Predict the 3D structure of the following.
Amino acid sequence: MSHILRVIGEMFPDAHCELIHDNPFELTIAVLLSAQCTDETVNKVTATLFKKYRSPADYLAVPQEELEQDIRRIGLFRTKAANIQKLCRILIDEYEGQIPRAHEELVKLPGVGRKTANVVVSNAFGVPAIAVDTHLDRVSKRLGIAKPEDSVLEVEKKLMKLVPREQWTDTHHRLIFFGRYHCKAQNPACPVCPLLDVCKDGQKRMKPATRPTSKENKTKLNGKG
């Protein structure tokens, strides 16, 4: 694992959260919106959204239908609009309008799962955490850190065990960058990958197609194959 950490550290030393935000509240909204959606699309939507809505009260001051239209470019926008308003109501009623710092409190909020809570505590409050998104899940399994059948939670637990706690957040960002810009779902950069030596998935991809033996060719020519 130390080899993987060293390589991704050299490849992406400045890896970071790419969701644009100015405070914990905006980050929470942005991560909630990012489910099944790219960070790029979220940033385009929040560029205007965060100018219109600056506090939990602002989100509750409009009908849900208006908020839906404001985030319409985001997948599952109706469900997310409903969750945002429910979340904002809870923040006002129970947390004086502030995002709670504790992970166990964050996951109680509508639309906030374990991944979202991990992103918020690590990026907004500086608490080491590993949030497993689709990129990190894919990369962990390709590199043999986790098994193909492992759940997201199992992947997270294995990484937490293998990676020193003080490196959790940096490793989270670097593995995401590695998956987003190098080890992509389609057409990963295996030929130039510095981790090909530990990636069985990549090694399989790089193997040339096996040519049929002369005996196999003869069988096919005789119509027996």
